[in-house]
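Practice problem 4.
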């Protein structure tokens, strides 16, 4: 069992840290809104620190799961950031969905200070975090990854080193590219079927068993048909992720025209007031 800290007790971080404590790790938590950290400690034991720096001191592994690149910089290299308190030989594992660029920047900063940085974005959503069955995609040095993997598996069902620093974030970008186009296709199919007057539940039931079947069809098809969009990953977060993807594609020269278009469709959803709707809400702009 390890001495660890967890920075960022949001929708994802709160249950991830809980799984670490439940597995017997000694957990110190930090959250910007301190009440959440105090509540976490009252439920799970451990200790709350008042700054990321204080949380990081004396730990073997420091986990983080905050919002975006700037938030991550703030809790690492910012004033009272964790990087000012990390022990030599320790490992910083970042679960934020962020750019490959910030991962490389923080990896280099960590290296000069004598500790390791692993980018480790997750997939599986709130339910995956609550149930401890996330998929984790990592980038960084093999020895640091090997040391961190057993602790990460406290809240994951799959975890893999994808390559050098940034490779975890690049893998997560591919995950989001694959979701974006697929959800739009599913939305168009359901919309088309409704206009044709078919029984959509029957249609989904039969075609999900064939080549058109997907996780999205299985888990979101019926609720999209019913106009229910309250199932986790918010449109605002998806736009943040797609902007990371589009920046990366601009740099690498990759062609992602459907992803760019779907990003604009999500902007339409935001204009409709759907910032907190989940990503399956693409159908709403076809039906309005
Ligand atoms: P969330 O509920 O909004 O939580 C964000 C956490 O980060 C909160 O603890 C927040 O503190 C903290 N934070 C944000 N900015 C900060 C800053 N500048 N300084 C210090 N702390 C800061 O978000 P979430 O849903 O847990 O998502 C976290 C990350 O996981 C995001 O990168 C997201 O894209 C990714 N992700 C989310 C899902 C999902 O389904 N939700 C799935 C996969 C990946 P406060 O409590 O003080 O606001």
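Answer key:
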């Amino acid at each position: 069992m390890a001495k660890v800290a967890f920075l960022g007790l949001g929708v994802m971080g709160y249950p991830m840290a809980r799984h670490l404590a439940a597995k017997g790790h000694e957990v110190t938590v930090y959250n910007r809104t301190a009440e959440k950290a105090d509540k976490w400690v009252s439920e799970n034991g451990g200790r709350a620190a008042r700054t990321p720096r204080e949380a990081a001191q004396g730990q073997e592994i420091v986990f983080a799961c905050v919002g975006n690149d700037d938030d991550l910089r703030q809790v690492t290299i910012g004033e009272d950031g964790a990087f000012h308190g990390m022990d030599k030989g320790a490992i910083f594992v970042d679960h934020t969905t962020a750019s490959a660029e910030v991962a490389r920047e923080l990896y280099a900063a960590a290296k000069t200070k004598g500790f390791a940085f692993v980018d480790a974005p997750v997939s599986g959503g709130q339910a995956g975090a609550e149930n401890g069955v996330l998929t984790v995609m990592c980038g960084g040095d093999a020895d640091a990854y090997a040391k961190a993997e057993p602790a990460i598996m406290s809240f994951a069902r799959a975890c893999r080193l994808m390559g050098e620093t940034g490779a975890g974030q690049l893998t997560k970008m591919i995950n989001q590219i694959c979701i974006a186009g697929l959800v739009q296709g599913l939305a168009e199919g359901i919309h088309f079927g409704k206009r044709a007057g078919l029984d959509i539940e029957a249609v989904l039931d039969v075609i999900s068993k064939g080549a058109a079947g997907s996780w999205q069809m299985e888990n979101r098809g019926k609720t999209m048909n019913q106009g229910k969009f309250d199932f986790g990953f918010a449109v605002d977060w998806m736009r943040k992720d797609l902007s990371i993807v589009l920046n990366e594609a601009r740099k690498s020269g990759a062609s992602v025209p459907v992803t760019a278009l779907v990003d604009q469709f999500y902007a339409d959803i935001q204009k409709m007031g759907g910032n907190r709707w989940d990503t399956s809400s693409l159908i709403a702009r076809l039906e309005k």
